[in-house]
Amino acid sequence: MKVVVCSEPGRLEITDRPRPAAPAEGRVRLAVRQVGICGTDYHIFEGKHPFLEYPRVMGHEISATVIEAGPGSRLDPGMLVVVNPYISCGSCIACRRGKPNCCTAIRVLGVHTDGAFCEEILMPEQNLYPANGLSPEAAATVEFLAIGAHAVRRSGVAPGARSLVIGAGPIGLGTAIFSRIAGHEVTLLDTSAERLGFAANELGFSGGLLAGEGLEKAVAQATDGDGFDVVFDATGNATSMERSFAHVAHGGTLVFVSVVKNDIRFSDPEFHKRETTLVASRNATREDFDHVIASIGSGLVPVDRLVTHRTTLDQAVHDLPRWAHDKAGLVKAVITVNAA
Predict the structure, then answer these.
(1) What EC number(s) would the UniProt record show (predicted)?
(2) pLDDT given at position 338
């Protein structure tokens, strides 16, 4: 089968590998239909991922069709499924507590093990969720949207709250969408007027704040001087994460949706004075995937506007390097692998 491999930083190659073997019990052989290109994939291509071994087949935002399943499967050939790319051990303390998203031995497709920039993959059945009427392209957006949905659920913040989402990239936009679905009054903050314009014109988020001089005053004006009830930082930038504490209202919640390798420092007196709740949000669980699938099906998520760039498996070796350096107008790119 055809496979796109990142053989080393800055180099993508199309090669040929054997198709997966017939699945054993609990496993399913899949034809990849669509696969989204994530920020992680760009980082892998650029050699910026700190914990990755090359060569690597990237790709973890996946929709696929069942080819064959192991004995006793509930999945039928031809069924379209969403793939949860977080393969957990099932026995560690996190898994025993129903949190496989932070399994101590987690393996993520396309990062710790080869992913879906290929024609077929073999997956545990427990990681496959029926797409319930979604198109293959819409189904391929579920994983990245589930990151934001999980962060909103982790916040535990009730409807009516003032919400600030920092970072208007794909993860931030997904977080903003699910914050809105949760009934929050959502404001976006970004360094890019272009991204804020996209959020306003295409997604209906009118309350955009541009980072820079005067931001503190703008936050005060947007919240009657109180600060935001909940702040989601989806930037993956240590400086932004440290500054985000100042935007939280007294008694409010700060959620770190992204992760950085750096240490994060903050003022302990301010943290205690505000009795801030600080929350980490990692990956997503089936509950979040199901919520996203239902929300797309209900028309609450404009996936047709989020997918701005499209390519094929053959052309991905040319397009992904170009998009890694030129992200003008880019929100989410999707690769068509098997059209039908």
Answers:
(1) 1.1.1.-
(2) 87
Domain range enclosing 33: 2-141+301-336
Record the pTM: 0.96
Based on the fold, state whether residues 8 and 137 are members of the same structural domain: yes
Residue 154 CB neighbours (<10 A): 19
- How many other CB atoms are there within 10 angstroms of residue 127's CB atom? 20
Q: Cα–Cα distance between 289 and 284 in angstroms, integer?
A: 7
pLDDT category at 339 given cuts 50, 70, 90 is: confident
pLDDT in tens, 173-217: 999 999 999 999 999 999 999 999 999 999 999 879 999 999 999
Main-chain dihedrals φ then ψ at residue 339, nearest 5 degrees? -70, -25
Q: Is the preceding omega at residue 55 within 30 degrees of 0, hence cis?
A: yes
Q: Both 155 and 66 in a single domain?
A: no
Is residue 172 domain-shared with residue 210, that is, in the same domain? Answer: yes
Q: Tokens 């919520």 label which residue? A: 291
pLDDT band at residue 301 using 50, 70 and 90 as cut-offs: very high
Tell me whether residue 286 is in a domain: no
CATH of residue 56? 3.90.180.10
pLDDT band of residue 227 (cuts 50, 70, 90) is: very high
Give 11's contacts (C-beta < 8 A, 6+ positions apart): none
Q: Is the torsion defined by CA of 309, 310, 311, 317 positive or negative? A: positive
CA distance 29 to 27: 7
Mean pLDDT confidence for 37-58? 91
Nearest to 46 by CA among 331, 337, 322, 241: 322
pLDDT beyond 80 at 51: no
> How far are the Cα atoms of 60, 115, 306 from residue 322, in angstroms, in the given order?
20, 21, 19
pLDDT-based confidence at residue 79 (cuts at 50, 70, 90)? very high
From 184, 174, 185, select the one nearest 148 (Cα to Cα): 174
**DSSP string covering 60-90, please?**
-EEEEEEEEE-TT-SPPTT-EEEE--EE--S
